[in-house]
Amino acid sequence: MFCFQCEQTAKGEGCTKIGVCGKQPEVAALQDLLIHATKGIAQVAVEGTKVGVSDPAVNQFACEAIFSTLTNVDFDPARFVTLIDEAVKHREALKAKVQAAGGSAAFADGPATFTPAGDQAGLVAQGEKVGIQADPSVNPDIRSLRELIVYGIKGLAAYADHARILGQEDESVYAYIYEGLAATLDDTLGADEYVGLALKCGEVNLKAMELLDAGNTGTYGHPVPTAVPLGAKKGKAILVSGHDLKDLETILKQTEGKGINVYTHGEMLPCHGYPELKKYGHFYGHYGTAWQNQAKEFAAFPGAIVMTTNCIQKPRETYQDNIFTTGLVGWPGVTHIADKDFTPAIERAMALPGFTKDVPGKQVMVGFARNAVMGVAPQVIEAVKNKAIRHFFLVGGCDGAKPGRDYYTEFVEKVPEDCVVLTLACGKFRFFDKDLGDIGGIPRLLDIGQCNDAHSAIQIAVALANAFECGVNDLPLSMILSWYEQKACVILLSLLHLGIKDIRLGPSLPAFITPNVLDVLVKNFNIMPIGTAEGDLKAILG
Ligand code: FSO
Ligand code: SF4
After folding, report:
1. What ipTM was predicted for this assembly?
2. Where does this protein have coiled-coil stretches (predicted)?
């Protein structure tokens, strides 16, 4: 196997024996084959676009297939066998439609024509031939850019899938996914074209994130500042992890009146701020921290656990029977709830002891998404003008296991008292429970939401820039980002598309970016690796 799509890749180079994430070589090969098969769909869909053919079922499938290959989503080989089979069926059905509409259905040998083997072993063997390094003759910089586009598309597909679940879709998003994937097969394209396509991925992702924002806020209302208990309430308990708001709502509905308290885990924390979710009396609090601490935290949770999206890790035996997956998440041997009837998890929660007494704990504030922040925009602008607020830091992104991620904790601790920290995604667990106080009533630590809410952060930055009649790069705002998986890659591409400069990125730079590609990013965007908290603060604040 060879995989280097995430930040924790082995030795900062690539996972070759088994994934640091726990991905087995068979699953890696099956994921590679599924991406190959989806590129085949993309080639056909690009022809379809020319003759006005687009199939909603294919669009949904393509996003689900791509999202399944994102880091820490699905580790179950059986599910990939099914997905590969379905991919080829969708491809052939789409070919027929394209042909019927007068389009071309003649494709060169490759993803658009391949026939899947009849069993898992055969598919694994096929997958091993189509991996990232399959063709050693490809120029490393071109390979780097192609992979950058594929990983960007993985993040984009994830956001598009989340948006579609809440009824929000746009043809332009699917069209780009197909254009970008098909382009990675095109030997006539050079570095400039690929850089353009990578930035276009970022541009299209802004649309996908806008759709997701519309889905979230349209369905559940605009988040409002909300205090969330980190302790627990005596009683039976279900913990909901991942990013899917609809799954959480479904679980809240299905547990109503059953004497079960529902807790959020990881990226579900910001859900407490949504009016249509917080209205449930048994939606109690938040348990645990970021994804990489789940083995320890889940082992100590006295109820059932539901994983709605990434990030799942190998469950320990002690809680293997308590954890359930739904949606695209999978782990071999873990009960999967495909039909959104969460009865198995509810029954498990009822059978487990739950919290036998109230557990006291701190509270944290959530709900500072764009609507809430813009609601206090006049005070914020005034505070900047009268120099009560000197600078804003967006310290956001993914968390992970590397010791170097202490940087983000230290950074926030050292941010001077006349500065405000905006945060989003699971990287916040490095500092989310710190009491940073306020500046004239404006909290110094503002939780914008999930990584899925990056659109909200961008809107806040744009609104500030408009208020000060300057560009985002001229604002007293610095972005200190942490990345782990491919949703972070596409958000970065969106920021680059917007022309945002001087981003600090850590804890390490992507292994799939070659020195030449990095050079292009540095020259155009002055993107830089994080240094020391003290040194970076000094450099930014002067
Ligand atoms: Fe974290 Fe995992 Fe939200 Fe990522 S839970 S690391 S960017 O998958 O999705 O922030
Ligand atoms: Fe390695 Fe990350 Fe790929 Fe997992 S997703 S195999 S940790 S590079």
Report:
1. 0.96
2. none
